[in-house]
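2024-03-11 09:14:02 INFO worker-7 job=invfold-0412 stage=load source=structure_tokens
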């Protein structure tokens, strides 16, 4: 069961980690243009890239997991609402539902205390 909890955090976070790295290092201009098409100012590119890289890493290692998972859930819901609500396009509906499902996964992580294989657990055991 210990490994399953860790794998869940890795699987849930991997999409954001890979996409954040890709956006930051390979698709920066394309991403900024896409954001601006939806009225999102370019200045938010770097904070969102930071969030997509750092918070998933923290979730994977299990540090401040509940907080990070809560922020990632809010971020994912926000992205779904801003970028994927043109339900006349079937793919947009699918992406919207995928994002909402991922946000649900983050909420499950946020609602449950890391019991094993996490920095949060190590710190908790150390303080006992």
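2024-03-11 09:14:09 INFO worker-7 stage=emit residues=128
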């Amino acid at each position: 069961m210990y490994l399953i909890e860790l794998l869940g955090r890795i699987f849930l976070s991997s999409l954001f980690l890979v996409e954040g790295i890709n956006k930051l290092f390979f698709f920066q201009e394309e991403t900024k243009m896409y954001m601006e098409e939806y009225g999102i100012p370019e200045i938010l590119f770097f904070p969102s890239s930071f969030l997509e890289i750092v918070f998933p890493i923290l979730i994977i290692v299990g540090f401040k997991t509940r907080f990070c998972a809560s922020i990632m859930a809010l971020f994912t819901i926000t992205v779904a609402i801003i970028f994927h609500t043109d339900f006349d396009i079937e793919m947009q509906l699918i992406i919207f539902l995928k994002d909402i499902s991922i946000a649900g996964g983050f909420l499950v992580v946020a609602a449950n205390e890391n019991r094993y294989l996490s920095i949060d657990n190590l710190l908790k055991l150390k303080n006992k």
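2024-03-11 09:14:09 INFO worker-7 stage=report msg="The radius of gyration is 16 Å."
2024-03-11 09:14:10 INFO worker-7 job finished
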